Amino acid sequence: MNTNEYAVILSTLSGRQPQSIDSLLAPFDNRLAPEAGNCLASEGMAPSESLFAQDTQLAIAFMVSKPLENINATALKLASIAAEKNTIPVIFSKIDYCGLEQAGFRIERISNMGDEEANLQIEQLQNLWGTPFIIELQ
Predict the structure, then answer these.
(1) Is the full-model pTM beyond 0.90?
(2) Which residues, listed in sequence order, are joined to residue 49 by a DSSP beta bridge?
(3) Which residues pair with 91 in a beta bridge?
(4) Dihedral sign (CA 100, 102, 106, 107)
């Protein structure tokens, strides 16, 4: 994304918080099935690095471990940082829906199949995005 795309995010944020309807839709959402969470790459099946060649933008990883209190304020801060520093905020989410999807951010969902698999997936994502550290969002 470029500065103009983050400017669009900044201009479309509102002070209103969306109301969650997850509990109403949960019985009909196949993504919530226990077997739906495993999406780790198999050993020896890694795609070519050239598919993920990055330009000059630096990715910064942020972790969402629990629902955010103010999604719009968080989106505003992330878009401002991204536009000012010419970076790509990548959100690693340990919850099904963190709310930043609605603002257009890149969300990488972390498996809920156990700590070992989650840590392996986080390591793979850090290698993919080139992010040596993760900032926890609260």
Answers:
(1) no
(2) none
(3) 62, 107
(4) positive
